[in-house]
Structures are given as structure tokens and as C-alpha cells.
Amino acid sequence: MKPLRSCSAFIISLVIIVVYEARAGHSLSRKPDRGYYDFFYFVQQWPGAYCDSKWGCCFPKTGKPAENFSIHGLWPNFNNGSYPQNCDNLNRNPFDKSKIVGLIKRMQVEWPTLSCPSGDGFKFWSHEWNKHGTCSANVLNQQSFFQKTLDFKIKSNLIQHLSDAGIHPNDGFYRAEDVEAAIEDGLGVTPYLECNFDKEGNSQLFQVYLCVNKLANAFIQCPVMPHGRRCASSVQFQSFSRF
Ligand code: AMP
After folding, report:
1. 69-109, pLDDT tens digit by residue?
2. How far is the CA of 135 from the centre of ligand 1 (A)?
3. Which of 7, 75, 144, 192 could form an S-S bond across to 140 if both were Cys, CB 3.0 to 4.6 Å?
4. CB 114 near ligand 1, within 6 Å
């Protein structure tokens, strides 16, 4: 091939790749691939608020969970606020129970399913792995993804930090800034609070987001706050015993 022709062929190929990547929402410098993310959101939820939501709840087959926060997930995120998801398009690394057999007892306690009909948790955990876990699979394999998430739950001990500040799940209303401050005093990082709103418009503490570094070994200040529904200045901390 003559130099001019091969140069044009190269430029045309480059243009095709750039157009393809742009249309697919990809950036050439950052493939939407497992291992491309900046940090994690570690998300816990309050079961009382989950049950009081429009979709209601069903207790897992293993029984009613304790009155404590439970895990929603560990979600890779980018510093610009966007996030990768479902990163295993070729289904090479699907959720596999056999990789987490040693963790299942703990998962039933700390990461219970609350959706209906009652389940054993595998559907929920599989969803979390396939949607989020696959995007950090270069850093955390399946076993370590679930293990680290469980460990962050214990490390965060939200219920204790809130209790230390006189904040209890008693259907009472608390200032959102006091809830944040109690968690920040306990953990040294600022949480993000997400609320549900009941029929009367009360803001109910639903989920607490904490940020975790890329290697999943420490809480960090969030590089960017999430988009969940922000709480009003006064939040209800619902009792879970009435469900
Ligand atoms: P995600 O896609 O990770 O944002 O999670 C949202 C999905 O998780 C929705 O389908 C929710 O219904 C489901 N979900 C959230 N919390 C729970 C829970 N405790 N039990 C079962 N499913 C849940």
C-alpha cells in the first residue's frame, strides 16, 4: 500500500473507533470495564423504612432480621458522579454460590433480602454482584467482594454510633444534621443520608451511604455525593419492631 493510502486508512479507522466509542458511551481513556472506577459507595438501609415504602417487604425465609441496619451493596463509582454497571457482558464471571459458601450465614444476618415474595437472599446478592460487583472484579474477586462488604458493615457499626448520640429507632424525629454528625463523629467521614417519604410527607431515614477507597480497605470522604433522595431537615427513625 502507498504511504498516502495507508495513512488515510489509518485515519479512517481511527475515526470509526472514536465514533463507535462515543456512540456506545465509552471513553477511550476509560473503558466501562471491570476495574475501571474510582471509589465505592457502601450503602446500608434501614429495614423499617424499606418495609414502610410503597413496595412493602417480606421477611427472608431465615426469619425476621434484627432491628439493625442491613447491607444494600458496595457500588463502584466514578469521581464525576456516574457509575459503571453490569460489567460482565460476556457472562464469564456470573454470581456463583460456591464461591461464598463460607459467608452465607453472615450474609443472611447482615445482608438480608426484604423483597417479596420471601426469598433466601441469593436473588438479591446475585443482582448486586452482576450489576455492581462485576465492575470491580479486577480488584475484588467474588469472595472478597462479599467478604469486604460484610466487614465494612461491622466496621461502620452505625446503630452504635447513633445510639451513642441518643438517636434510637423509636419512631422519633431527629435533625438530619445530628444523624450525620453522630456517624461522622464515630467514623471520621461524612455520610450521605437518603430518605423515603411517607403518605404524610414525613422524611424517613432509609439509606446511609459511606465512601470506600478503590482498594476497599478504608472509609474515605466522598469524592462526590450520590443522587439519592435527600432527607428533609427533620428525619424519622422508625421502629422496626412493629413490622
Ligand atoms: P441496585 O440496582 O443495586 O440499586 O438495587 C436496587 C434493587 O435492589 C431494586 O430491585 C430493589 O428492589 C432491590 N433491593 C434493595 N434493597 C433490597 C433488599 N433489602 N432486599 C431485596 N431487594 C432489595
Report:
1. 999 999 999 999 999 999 999 999 999 999 999 999 999 99
2. 17
3. 144
4. yes
